Amino acid sequence: MSPILRGNVISFVSRSEEQTRRLGARLGRLLQAGDLICLEGPLGSGKTCFAQGIGIGMGVKEPITSSSFVLIGEYKAPNGLTLYHIDFYRLQNPVEEALAIGIEEKFYGDGVCVIEWADRAKEIIPPERLWITFNYLDAHQRSILMEPNGERYVRLLNLFKESAFGLG
Ligand SMILES: Nc1ncnc2c1ncn2[C@@H]1O[C@H](COP(=O)(O)OP(=O)(O)O)[C@@H](O)[C@H]1O
Ligand SMILES: [Mg+2]
C-alpha cells in the first residue's frame, strides 16, 4: 500500500475490512488523553470498522459496537484512558441533541473521542482534531484521507505514517 502525501495530509486505499481495522489499531496505539478523531463518509465506508481498530489499538477488551440507541459508547482501556465512541448518524438535529447531552464535556475532557458522522455537527467540533474521510471505491476497497488540524494532530499523523507505512 503506497500512500499519497500532500503537505500534512495523507491518503491511501484500504483493500479489506481487516486492513482498515489494522490501520485503526495502529492509530489507536498512539492516542492520548484529550485526542479527538473525526470520521466522515457514507454508510458502509468503514468508519465503524476503523473505530473498532482504534479500540483494539487502545487495548479495550470488549468489541466496539454500533448501537441504534446509544449516542455515546464508553469503553475503558487498561491504561485508564476512556474511549468515547460517538455516532451522530441517527440524530434528527445533531447539534442541539449532542449539546443537550453534554457532548462538550467529552470533547474537552480527558478521554479519547472517536466520532462517526462528525460532519453532521461540524460547527460544534473543536478546531483541533484529526479528520478522516472514508469513501467507497468498490466491494473491498475504501479510500481513506487523513487531515490534521493543530500541532498535536500533525505530530500524531507523523507517528501514524511512521507506524503504518514506515515513513518518518
Ligand atoms: N476495505 C474495507 N474497509 C472497511 N470495510 C470494508 C472494506 N471492504 C469491505 N468492507 C465492508 O464495508 C462495511 C463497512 O461497514 P462499517 O464499518 O460499519 O461502515 P460505516 O460505519 O462507515 O457505515 C462492512 O460490511 C465491511 O465488511
Ligand atoms: Mg458506522
Euclidean distance between termini CA atoms: 16 Å
H/E series, N to C? EEHEHEEHHEEEH
The biggest beta sheet is recorded as: 8 strands, mixed
| Structure summary, number of beta strands | 8
CATH class: Alpha Beta
Give the uncertain stretches in residue-range form: none
The assembly state of the depicted protein chains is single chain
Report the C-alpha radius of gyration, rounded: 15 Å
Reported CATH architecture: 3-Layer(aba) Sandwich
The average pLDDT score comes to: 95
The number of helical elements comes to 5
Number of domains: 1
Short description:
This protein has 168 residues and is of the alpha/beta class.
Model description:
- By secondary structure, the protein is an alpha/beta fold.
- It has one domain (17-165): P-loop containing nucleotide triphosphate hydrolases (Rossmann fold).
- Helices cover 30% and strands 27% of the residues.
- It is built from 5 helices and 8 strands.
- It has helices at residues 17-28, 47-58, 94-100, 103-107, 151-165; strands at 4-6, 9-14, 36-40, 72-76, 82-87, 112-116, 129-136, 142-149.
- Strands 1-2-8-7-3-6-5-4 form an 8-stranded mixed beta sheet.
- A hairpin with a 5-residue loop joins strand 4 and strand 5.
- The protein is globular and about 40 Å long.
Short descriptors:
168 residues; alpha/beta; Rossmann fold; 8-stranded mixed beta sheet; 5 helices; 8 strands; globular; binds adenosine-5'-diphosphate; binds magnesium ion
Strands, helices and their partners?
Elements lengths: L3 E3 L2 E6 L2 H12 L7 E5 L6 H12 L13 E5 L5 E6 L6 H7 L2 H5 L4 E5 L12 E8 L5 E8 L1 H15 L3
Parallel strand pairs: 3-6, 3-7, 5-6
Antiparallel strand pairs: 1-2, 2-8, 4-5, 7-8
Helix pairs in contact: 1-2
Bound molecules: adenosine-5'-diphosphate (ADP) and magnesium ion.
The site of adenosine-5'-diphosphate has 18 residues, from α1 and α2.
